[in-house]
Amino acid sequence: TPWPPGSGRGRPGSGTSDRGPRPVRRGGGGAVPPGAQAGLGRALWWAGAAAWWTLDGFITATNYHRMGQGTSLTWGRAMQTAMASAWMWVPLTVFALWLADRFPLDRDRWTRHLPVLLAGALGVCVARALAVVALNPWIGWYETLPPIGEVLLTSVLNNLFLFFMLVGVGHALLYARRFRERDEQLARAELRSLKM
User: Fold this and answer.
1) How far apart are CA 189 and CA 1, in angstroms?
2) Which segments of the chain have a pLDDT < 70?
3) Are 18 and 6 in contact (CB under 8 A)?
4) Which positions ≥6 away from 66 have C-beta within 8 Å?
5) Neighbours of 97 (CB within 10 A)
6) Model's pTM, two decimal places?
7) What does the pLDDT read at residue 37?
């Protein structure tokens, strides 16, 4: 028997009511609107990507400088090239996480979403190759810039696998969030059943 309209109750176990979806509640605080959750998640993506790639750039610069001891490679130049390469990955990392969140390789949709991810990977490789060509006069990755085809091939070899690793991280975050949301829905359903 359906619940009477306006009672504020949905079907048992449905996780919804006739008043619309409920915002997720966090322990010890008020309701968190879904839009605010999404905004917070994106902010954490940017912060995490910036922190990770800054650390990666610093470690890479340290290795460059150590291997270049006895040459003309200075610490400043090693930092310049390594940090520029690393920081270019910050927006691309957020893009990879967004693609995984928006077009996940679910069992029922992977055939539709896989071409989107492949196109995203190709776009990232092309974007990084064009960025190298445009910024090389200031950053100096190459003393003499190779032909664009060679730069593009190098970008594919260096960046394609890394991009799909980031997409994998995005899938892990997505499934962890789904698992957490499912547990929260079950907990709310059990709480409502106890109050009946």
Assistant:
1) 18
2) 1-39, 70
3) yes
4) none
5) 24
6) 0.75
7) 67
Cα 80 to Cα 102: distance, rounded to the nearest angstrom = 34
pLDDT given at position 20: 46
Q: How far apart are CA 121 and CA 126, in angstroms?
A: 9
Query: Measured between alpha carbons, how far is 7 from 102 in angstroms, rounded to an integer?
Result: 35
Which is nearest to 174 in space by CA: 91, 82, 105? 105
C-alpha–C-alpha distance, residues 58 and 61, integer Å: 5
Give the per-residue pLDDT at 33. 59
Which pLDDT score, from 0 to 100, does residue 167 have? 97
Based on the number of CB atoms within 10 Å of its own CB, is 51 exposed (0-12), middle (13-18) or buried (19 or more)? exposed
Question: Dihedral sign, CA of 163, 166, 172, 178?
Answer: negative
Question: C-alpha 64: how far from its chain's center?
Answer: 27
- According to the model, what pLDDT value does residue 5 have? 42
